[in-house]
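Moderator note: this is an archived Q&A kept for reference. The question asked for a predicted structure of one protein chain; the sequence and the answer are reproduced below.
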Amino acid sequence: MNAVRVSAVLFARDQKKVAAFYATVFGADTIAGDAHHTSLSCAGFDLMVHQIPAHLLPAVNTGEPVQRREMAAIRLDYPVADLERARRDASRLGGSIDAQPPPWAAGDTGYFLGQDPEGNVFGLKVRR
């Protein structure tokens, strides 16, 4: 019997840009992809970044910064080996990783929040 891996789908305005962000920042491998989706594998977890169809995209106010989506029903957390490299890559690719752990992290100095180029919040845990 083949085991089914845990996976998630992230819908994006620009799936290629968002997929490149996750592949680079978290060292995910690209498994498959086309104009509509990219499948990534990261530390035993599969993430599909799926293009939102053009007719479903809300209008965009150009020039305004992306708003962080902190009130989502789910947040994905990823392991990283090198926090500073992940921060540099995230910034270069249009996202960010916070400088300090969130106040509720109870002193865990290896856990941080960040956002991808479209404002989706993620967590990351530094592997020690």
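Archived answer notes: The two ends are 34 Å apart (CA to CA).
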